[in-house]
Amino acid sequence: MRATLLKCSLVVSVTVGVFFALSGSASAQITRYQEDQRLGTESHIGNVTGHAKAAAMDYRRYCVGCHGDDGDGMGANEPWLDPKPRNFTLGQFKCRSTPTGTLPTDEDLFDTIARGLDRSNMPPWNTFTRQQRADLVAYVKHFSPKFQTEKPGTPIQIPPEPEVTADRIKTGQVLFQKLECWKCHGVEGKANGPSADTLQDDQNRPIKPYDFTDGTRPKCGSSDQDIYKIFMTGLDGTPMPSFADNVKPDEAWDLVFYLRTLQPMHSKERQIAKQLGLKPIDPNAPVPEATPAATPAPAPQQ
Amino acid sequence: MTSFRRSLASALLFVFIVLGFASSAHALPAFARKYGLRCSACHEAWPMLNYFGQKFKDNGYQLMNDRDAPIWQNPSYWPVVFRITPNWHRESTNKVLVDTPAGPNSGEVQVTSHGFDLSGLDFHTGGTLDKNISFYVLPSSDPTASFHFEQVFARLDNIFGSPWLNVKLGKFELDNLVSEKRILTLTSISGIYQTYHFIPQGDGNIFGQIGDNQLGVEWMGHSVNDRTRVSAALLSSSDGNVNLSYGNSYSGFFAASQAFDVGKLGVDRIGAYAMVGEAPTTYITQNGGSIIPGAAIGNKSYSREGFVGLFYFGKLDFLAVTQHGSDSAWFGAGYGDLPGGTIVNNNIPGTTLPVGARAPTWNGYMLETHYVYSPQLIFIQRSEWERMSQQADPTSASNFGDVDMYTIGYRYYPIMTSRAGFAWHNEYSWTRQRGTAPDGGDLSSSSLLLGFDFDF
Q1: What was the ipTM of the complex prediction?
Q2: CATH number of A32-149: 3.30.70, 1.10.760, 3.30.450, 1.25.10?
Q3: Chain A, window 248-267: residues with a beta carbon less than 8 angstroms from a chain B beta carbon
């Protein structure tokens, strides 16, 4: 009898445990047909092809707590996070190599997953294999109908990085003033410009500009090329616009060099700025003449 | 079936059903609360770490972003987690020498006991004191609430900005690739890795138990993506016991591993470890036999070394561990440990080893398999085999003391949040040790456990 009881307990507990574990909650946002269609989404990273369907388990394990079952950024942690998790359904991404308003490339999403996003709760997921990451890229894409109907933008062309010179840094400073970067980032890059406290993202949530002086990495990467891309493509969904129409490609490097002087890390740019005795800009002073043909900055994108 | 048993079965069924319907609590243990990540981000199934969790640990409980420094935390945030497992368990041993019912001085019977019970209680607190200074404090109790420090350390992480320079001081989990402190099995038999604790019958060396947390200092280095890991630790040969309870002897523990990207299968890892050291066999006494703590001499050597592998095949993964162990003949003859704080064998001047005494050696093998159906449901099996290759006493049977252990079970996590962990744990284990029953036969035991394993 004891043995029978034992067996019954085991059978019941195993059966019940397995039953409830296997019963998942299905999303009611889209039809099963649409879901099946979208789960066919692929990504292409070099010679690796990612499949959305293959990433379902990893998404559930690693991502769903913030980004939610439906990819709408409404995961269980959402109320406590600042900034809020990305809503994948909108198909709008900050870190891109493509022009503002366009979809990112698969490589952009692939790189973002591995790099993480500083000053957010998105850690660097560089423990995934390339295949896992490619699968997750496809899974992220499957949430947005945009990826079904639109193609990604064409990545901007980044000219070769020139040699850093004192003249280029000075020109970059002029651009910093002329493009009114200081209005948000402050004259010393401390994120304390006159507009800093008023900024909102396109969901009307308060957002802070990047503080160049606190030693943290810029959100979309810390290489010179990454910084170049940030202001030439803009951070879609935030007030940070694209300056691609206002700055010539080669001049953009001057701005990159000047921005480096604002960061506390040891760099050649800081060394040159020190030798020059470079002072912060005076926003009330007229923009110096003989500067590059930069046109006025666009209004911040709300 | 009696009405009582029917009621019990109904009650169990009710509990299981309630458990099954429990809805996800949208709410955050300590690290998960800090970073807003689910348990599943760092644990294949908690408490076992996955690759991301291992990297997080190797970085000093840091994700290596700006959220690592405690300044980011709400001042009221206190990184404390408790863990305990109320359970029902059944233990059975095939041959126990009893006075009754056969009468005094005789009777070898099977003894089975079962009932509701508690595990010990762990209070984990850990995190960062500042960017790149991490800590861990773990007061742990037995089921009667008698506490000891299971783990206490501070660690300097990424010294000079290098992931290859991390130094830890205190009592800590050895850098085992397959760590007993992350074990998924809970019965009285499977709650430890036999391979990490095996010592030959009659052997007095408790010091080489690499499943136990140890006191010492550790250097650890790893590549940025944690694919390559190396560590070396200098440990007091005290098996983690505080107050310098044994002698002034030390051991070293070394580990290295390398991970490989195997495409669709995931990231596999292979490694090797070694523990080599000395421990005392001679205890200095005073006042008629009282041991002077920490003054033991007569150090003898021992070693444990082996290979480790973690292999992933989609939802199926395998942990494999081998070990070759060797003790000095003095340990093999029972010198070394102080069971209950008293000397059983003391290697005082003039002591000689039994005629023919040899240094015991053995080999251990462990294979643990997981089938991760989903982050919320994991099936587990583990098989362990400990085989003597040389007995200390040449007259002993060649398989005397050999151990076989098998366990099978599953853990179901009905909730998967970033605030708490809860698991329904079912497991059955069986073990057999050759020649150690009172009649000289094989001693076998089994254990069944059904419980709620939770932490918050």
Answers
A1: 0.79
A2: 1.10.760
A3: none
